[in-house]
Write a structure and sequence with these properties.
alpha+beta; Helix Hairpins; 3 domains; 4-stranded antiparallel β-sheet; 56% helix; rod-shaped
């Protein structure tokens, strides 16, 4: 089953909202109904319900006594009083026969004040007169919500729950919609990256929750895309670079096979050894660069006295400096946090590159700008065309025919420098020097 079919079987946003709404309705109804019962069951001093209830019963009892005082014992008169009260107050008032059978729990309530109250029917009973006649007031209208009609109560709770749930879901939907969109876009980008589309990038997130995650995914995709591109460049370039020493080796071996004398045979050996050494150097340099390019280079920074470090670096390069080249130093007396191993490798490559293309002068200037260390190497050579500023940092790059393997190595020096600059969250810039040559400025942070 394909991924698209799997995604289509998953619940849609609308169906999920409906499901959540139904769950919320049931939950709200249960919570409200239970809360009412719990509220009534709370101690009277918390709710005040018992005081109101007792006051209501007391008021009803006193009203019944006042009514009984109007009775004279004449049946017709007493019934007329009852009818008048019933018609005015719109509730049932009735004189019961003295032998009326009442439930045992009602009879048990009669005491010195001759009152009994039926909570279930909301009815008051009063015994009055010498013959212990029985007056019934009620059933009265029920104002207790818990004793009201259950279906009506549930319908009311359900309607309130629907309204509140709809409002809540709308607010929740408005709050979560940006998150949902960002999540779907991020998932789509991840799916594209998974199938090998390294050009896919997640759109800018509108929610703070996915903003950082989107930036991380895009940064990861950029690095992965760049690594794949660099790998292809390296592999193609290595294949091209390997052709020359391999061709020379093949030619030398052919000449050795056709040699008619030992002297002729031995004359080919130095060339073959040289080609093997060049081949080994090319492979080692390429593999080291590829390893550094694939891995995260974590600089081990320490406080370094820049003047001392710069002089040590230049002294180590004296054997490789052409005799006709004059090196000028302009070093600021500061200390800076850097990885001396990586920084030395970068500056060595910059100076060796300047030695190859300068006419007679090279300048090394090191100074700080804010929290950055600027290392500028200038020469008075032919310079670098502006359109080639980016090209010189590509692996195995050579700008023209004059920059051959003999003068330009394998074309990895400046690529190394760029990697080291990035490891220090820095960069490298190309410009014209004060003498018209090239000026490369390494910026470390």
């Amino acid at each position: 089953m394909g991924k698209s079919q799997q995604y289509s079987q998953q619940p849609s946003l609308t169906s999920r909202i409906i499901l959540y709404l139904l769950i919320m309705l049931v939950a709200q109804s249960v919570i409200v109904y239970g809360a009412l019962h719990i509220f009534v069951a709370l101690p009277p001093e918390w709710t005040g319900l018992s005081e109101d209830y007792e006051f209501y019963q007391k008021m009803l009892g006193e009203s019944a006594r006042l009514l009984a005082e109007q009775f004279t014992g004449d049946a017709a008169h007493d019934q007329a009083v009852v009818d008048t009260i019933a018609s005015r107050f719109n509730f049932n008032v009735e004189i019961l026969p003295t032998d009326t059978a009442l439930p045992a729990e009602i009879l048990a309530q009669f005491n010195g004040d001759n009152l009994a109250y039926d909570d279930r029917l909301n009815t008051l009973y009063l015994r009055y007169g010498p013959n212990a006649q029985l007056l019934q007031i009620g059933p009265l209208a029920n104002n207790d919500i818990l004793d009201a009609d259950t279906s009506a109560l549930l319908i009311f709770i359900l309607v309130c729950s629907v309204v509140s749930a709809l409002i809540f879901v709308c607010l929740l939907f408005m709050a979560l919609l940006p998150l949902w969109r960002d999540a779907m876009r991020l998932r789509a980008t991840a799916a594209q990256l998974t199938i090998g589309d390294l050009s896919a990038r997640a759109p800018k997130a509108h929610s703070w929750l996915f903003k950082t995650l989107t930036e991380v995914v895009n940064t990861m995709a950029d690095r992965l895309d760049q690594q794949v591109r660099n790998s292809k460049i390296i592999f193609h370039a290595m294949a091209h670079e390997l052709r020359t020493p391999i061709a020379r080796l093949r030619f030398g071996l052919t000449m050795m096979a056709e040699s008619e004398s030992k002297e002729s045979f031995n004359r080919q050996l130095p060339g073959i050894h040289h080609d093997l050494e060049e081949l080994e150097a090319l492979i080692n340099t390429s593999l080291n660069f590829f390893k550094m390019q694939q891995q995260d280079v974590l600089p081990k920074k320490q406080s370094v006295d820049i003047v001392t470090w710069a002089h040590q670096l230049c002294d180590a390069l004296i054997p490789m400096k052409p005799s006709h080249v004059q090196v000028t130093l302009a070093i600021e007396d500061v200390s800076f946090m850097l990885d001396t191993k990586l920084a030395t490798l970068a500056v060595n490559n910059l100076l060796l590159n300047a030695f190859k293309y300068t006419s007679s002068r090279v300048k090394l200037a090191i100074f700080t700008v804010d929290d950055e260390l600027h290392i500028a190497v200038s020469d008075d050579g032919a310079g670098i065309p502006k359109e080639a500023y980016d090209e010189i940092f590509r692996p195995f790059s050579r700008l023209d025919n004059s920059r051959t393997r003999e003068t330009g190595g394998h074309g990895l020096g400046l690529a190394y420098v760029e990697l080291i600059a990035k490891s220090h969250q820095g960069t490298i810039k190309v410009s014209d020097s004060e003498w018209g040559g090239a000026k490369l400025t390494l910026i470390l942070r």
